[in-house]
Amino acid sequence: MKFFIDNLPIIFPYDRIYPEQYAYMCDLKRTLDATGHCVLEMPSGTGKTVSLLSLIVSYQQFYPTRRKLIYCSRTVPEIEKALAELKRLMAYRIKFAETPEQEAKEKGFMGLGLTSRKNLCIHPDVSKEKKGKVVDARCRDLTNSAACEKGRADPGSVELCDWHENLGKGEPGSLIPPGIWTLADVLQHGRENKTCPYFTVRRMMPFVDVIIYSFHYLLDPKVAEQVSKELSKDAIVVFDEAHNIDNVCIESLSIDLTRPMLDSAARSVVKLGEKIDEIKKTDAAKLQDEYARLVEGLQESAAEASDEDAFMANPVLPDDLLKEAVPGNIRKAEHFVAFLKRFVEYLKTRMRVLHVVAETPLSFLQHLKDITYIERRPLRQVLFSFRLFSLTSAFRFCAERLQSMIRTLELNRLDEYSALQKVASFATLVATYEKGFLLILEPFETDNATVPNPIFHFTCLDPSLAIKPVFEHFSSVVITSGTISPLDMYPKMLQFTPVVQETYPMTLTRNAFLPLVITRGSDQVAISSRFEVRNDPAVVRNFGSILIEYSKIVPDGIVAFFPSYLYMESIVAAWNDMGILNEVWKNKLIFVETPDANETSIALENYRRACDNGRGAVLLSVARGKVSEGIDFDHNYGRAVIMFGVPYQYTESRILKARLEYLRDAYRIRESEFLGFDAMRNAAQCVGRVLRGKTDWGLMVFADKRFARADKRAKLPRWINQYITEVASNLSTDMALTLSKLFMRTISQNPNENQTGISLWTLDDIEKAQAKQKEQALLMEQQQEQEDDMDMDYGDGGIDDDTLLGLDV
Amino acid sequence: MPTTLCSAKASYKKQPGTLELTDSLLIWTQEGKKTPAVRVQHPEASSLFCSKEGAAQVRLKLGLVNDEAGHNFTFTSPSAVAYAEREAFKQELTNIISRNRSAAPTPLPKPTPLSTPAKTPAPIPSTSRATSVSSDTRTPILSGIDAATDFRLRKKVLLSNPELLVLHKELVMSGQITESEFWDGREHLLLAEAAAEGQKRGRPGQLVDPRPQTVEGGEVKIVITPQLVHDIFDEFPVVAKAYNDNVPNKLSEAEFWKRYFQSKLFNAHRASIRSSATQHVVKDDPIFDKYLEKDDDELEPRRARNEVSDLYINIGATLEDHVETGNEKDVTMQAGRQRGALPLIRKFNEHSERLLNSALGEVPPAKRRRIDSGNDEDDDAYAQITLDDLRDSEAMSGITLQMQDRERYFEGQLARSASEQAGSEVVDVRAAFAELKHGFRGWETRFSQLRIDKRAGDAALDSMTQNVSARLDIRTRKTDFPPTLFRQLTTCQTAANEFLRQFWTSLYPPPTTTSSGATPSQSAAKAAKMAGYLSKTREKVEALVRAGQLEGVEPERVEVAMKPLLDAVEHALAFYRARSAKTSTLKTA
């Protein structure tokens, strides 16, 4: 259908539209017009992605500026779905193009998705590697500019990647025909033409209208520096499924170091030293060259690095990067190696401590300095004879310097140096940020552990740091999700001011989903995943009987979520021993999420087969786990979701504690408020995955007595909360079953009433709504005018021009 | 009475009365009363007991599903008659009970404690003794199914559907319509039955986990059935391998199982997290320990599997989408920390997969789902992302009208509308506005003069009240007929309906049924026959009205009840007369 919002023609690839979608598009357009940021919450399953793409593509195609769209999603399945959605949209636009020119324009529209080499590699050997890191390293060995130069000059001397070589033969701007290419399409295209899919996408990025990739490619400075630095300022940035965006921000600036890593780093340092000695003998000029370049300044050398050479960017955000040359004390290769060696030694010493240490980056540096002063005399001629300032500055350039050195030495198999790279990143981050970070050394994994397994956490506490450059660089940033309540939390945490901030209720002609809160079992024992009672046999049994009973009455698929892996694993074992699972086996197959991602994918595939086949299955998984993000359980894949317990974070975690403290001090967000918010957004996220479209239906069971509390429920998105009745907010298992059966009997009837006009709009309905809107706007204006008139009247008591005109004299 | 299977004089709780068995109920009515005191639905009947032959009283006891005590009836007719009557009841009730049993999910081990097992009366298929329809050979109704299967299916359908059975008895066995006529248009029932039969019962889902029973003396006992052996071999191929290797050369069959259940291997196979603890108790076994595998409790599964190619559910792709960042997850969120649960979880997933594969077959290894670069909107790949309810299904199914000189048609329209447009005057906005304004002048005074007539309001309220009370009246009034009359009414109704159905299908044969393949002359003959039956309906209804009067029911009520039916019959007959008149004129012409 085609309709207008203001004067912008929108092509929407369906014959009908949900009122929510229309409202969502209007608000989105408002944001784009105002070139500001927005937070929008749209009920899950009401076609958020398609509305978003439909509006933005219409916008891009209508205005001559053609602002580029950068669409970020969380997971590869979601990226692939968004690409398919876009592909469908463009096919529709081409089909219904009104003029030949229009059609040509639509056909020229280009959209691509980007993911890692691991997911896009089709080299027969390299793609077999299990670890992404190894794929990256081997790919670089085959494709970096030095190797290519050598290989092309003297074929056969160096192994090169044919797929990559074939790319060089094509025109830079047309490595792939225009159109929308999903990840699977790009892979297929690569196979057919024997070209490298990964570099096809990378090199085409400046030419595309839409690029779809994950949050990390924009938020993680290590990646963003390589991938996203050339994107223009007027691009439209969308963070879809952004309910966990604060966590991604924090993760992208946090680093862990363990003892095995330090050992590996130490070995790498030794190897580096040997390599330098070797080069000194054979090709000393090379090192001299590098030194000279470093004296001149680092920027140049980084700029000429091509995509193929880039392997480890600076972990620091661009604005914080000092525009100065690498300090003198680490310019010389052997000095830098010695510097690294000392630093690794220092970290190892710190790890011998058997008590927990938490300190700020500043105090860490101070301590480091003190130590070096002690050891200064014996090591006078080598290093560490600097004032604090120069030490810090040496640290700041640690990552950059390592990068330069690795390039100079033309090292292969960089994955073996990954630990050292991490140490360098760590050093750089520690020296760059004073606020919003904390160093925590945990000598033991758990409180009861006796064997030390120390971990040095360098943890970012402030999510706004990582996203700040995005807000500053791009004029329109859209943050949207199905569950992003309470809306004001995000602007507060991420430190930005939205121009539009909106949540939409769900219009339904009949209730398509039934949220139920079960607070106690049929035996009236309260159920809860609270730490003190969660392993109580009565609670475990009551949780189990909920699963049994629902497996009896619900057709096809049931998904159950647990608050943590630890709890799920222990409860599955307990249920098995109690014979509960045997009862479930009678009705449905059981699949469980495992630690291995591929194994879980296979389980998921089988789960879907069982649902399609009618056998029915139960999938047990974990809130905020692998399955809860990005996998949909719509239609028969999920007729009921059961949330066992409230998915609170583990409050004993030191990192979490530090973060809570920071939020309280810096943004005045109370601990309990944040924890509750975080738990409910994850619960809502799990539960929201059962719906797609308004004819789909599902049960949403919240099994914990704490869900009955009004303050908890208030944190659920409005579209879920509005359908929780007073009765359904405090149920025992048997009552819930009765309600569920009733609901399923009703929903299985053919809907008699026509949804059109209420929860489904045709073109006429849109026009009607627009007319009404205009009328209201006019009315408002008139009122405004009248008020103005009044003011005028008070002013001089005269008659204004309008009235005079209207008078029939 | 067609629906009453048998009836007899019998006393219940020492009260004399009549016992009747109909097609859906067993009812006992006390003498002189109209409403039955005992009503038993057929599905409720669960067991039947009779007094011995030659006992002083001829008795019958019917046990119910939820009430074993049931009802006791004593046949009060002279003993020889009573005995014959009871046998008739026994025969029928046995059938009903056995039907109930076979329908029940868990059949009881032994049939009713009856001295003479009753045979299910097979509905004798009426061979073509049809008078009107010529050449009605008994061809199977469903193509591709031989006559025997077809017959069996029909029997099954009839047995599981008592109402249909009665109708069948009444119409087919009395010879009014033929067997194939009866089934004509009911093929779907047979197809459904055939499909239900064709369905293979899947394997039960439970894990193979033989739990030892403890008998006295501290010994444990595991009963080995062939089924269990089969399941164990299926679930644990390694046991099958061990069996092949060792039986009967090294171990006897019994020895093999005995040692297996004592071995570490068995404990490893048991689906319990506790089994690892018992391993210390279990002694070493040189034969079985060879087959022992390491526990599959690493984070990565021991058995490497191909990657899932479907990107929509590929979780691993997300993990590899970007370099690892961030701090380690806290203890509770690290998957696989409960080492002991991992083999269990893997066992669940594998077991489920095995069950699924046993029903569906393995997944083809290189199943690659791709979005083809066509414009086909119904492509399977889009199915996972489209919102079906947003599609206008009606608009899709339209067919463009093929019209000659289409352009000219539209041209003409355009020209007309253009001329119309030219003709219409241009509205002077100012003048119109002034006129409007003039019209509004003084509206306030006129508005204040507005009075609504009180009587009109009262009348409206009155009529609404009347409406409500009338409805209430109807709702409260008893409408049910005495059971016998009601039964007659429904019988008449269903029979006439069947005739109507046959009549209309013979006139307008449904396009899909090619198998029946009746020639036009055949169907004409059939229609004539049906019309003949239908014309008798009025008489039947009149007879019912009279019967109703005897029972004390006002004739109007019966008439009202049968009115729709009569209307339908009249309509059909009128149609038939008109049609035959037309054909006869055609013939004469």
From TrEMBL, chain A:
Keyword annotations: 4Fe-4S, ATP-binding, DNA damage, DNA repair, DNA-binding, Helicase, Hydrolase, Iron, Iron-sulfur, Isomerase, Metal-binding, Nucleotide-binding, Nucleus
User: What cofactor does its activity depend on?
Assistant: [4Fe-4S] cluster
Q: Which InterPro entries match?
A: ATP-dep_Helicase_C (IPR006555), DinG/Rad3-like (IPR045028), DNA/RNA_helicase_DEAH_CS (IPR002464), HBB (IPR010643), Helic_SF1/SF2_ATP-bd_DinG/Rad3 (IPR014013), Helicase-like_DEXD_c2 (IPR006554), P-loop_NTPase (IPR027417), RAD3-like_helicase_DEAD (IPR010614)
Catalysed reaction(s) here are: ATP + H2O = ADP + phosphate + H(+)
**Domain of life (superkingdom):** Eukaryota
Enzyme's top EC category: isomerase
* An example molecular function term from Gene Ontology annotations: damaged DNA binding
Q: Which GO terms describe its cellular component?
A: nucleotide-excision repair factor 3 complex
Compartment annotation:
Nucleus
| Gene Ontology biological process terms in this record | nucleotide-excision repair; positive regulation of mitotic recombination; transcription by RNA polymerase II
State if Isomerase is listed as a keyword: yes
Provide the Helicase ATP-binding domain boundaries.
Answer: 7-291
Q: Which SMART domains match?
A: DEXDc2, HELICc2
SUPFAM superfamilies documented for this protein = P-loop containing nucleoside triphosphate hydrolases
* PANTHER family per the UniProt record, alphabetical: DNA REPAIR DEAD HELICASE RAD3/XP-D SUBFAMILY MEMBER, GENERAL TRANSCRIPTION AND DNA REPAIR FACTOR IIH HELICASE SUBUNIT XPD
* Family the UniProt entry places it in: Belongs to the helicase family. RAD3/XPD subfamily.
The name under which this protein is listed is DNA 5'-3' helicase
From TrEMBL, chain B:
Cellular compartments annotated: Nucleus
Q: Indicate, by first and last residue, each region the UniProt record lists as having compositional bias (Pro residues).
A: 106-124
Single Gene Ontology BP term?
A: nucleotide-excision repair
Q: Where is the BSD domain?
A: 227-268
Q: Which domain of life is it from?
A: Eukaryota
Q: Name one GO cellular component term.
A: transcription factor TFIIH core complex
- Record Gene3D superfamilies: 6.10.140.1200, Pleckstrin-homology domain (PH domain)/Phosphotyrosine-binding domain (PTB)
- UniProt KW keywords: Nucleus, Repeat, Transcription, Transcription regulation
CDD domains attached here?
PH_TFIIH (cd13229)
Question: Which Pfam families would you find in this protein's record?
Answer: BSD (PF03909), PH_TFIIH (PF08567)
Q: Where is the composition biased (Polar residues)?
A: 125-137
Keyword Protein biosynthesis carried by entry: no
PANTHER family from the xrefs? TRANSCRIPTION INITIATION FACTOR IIH-RELATED (PTHR12856)
- Which family does this protein fall into? Belongs to the TFB1 family.
The name under which this protein is listed is BSD domain-containing protein
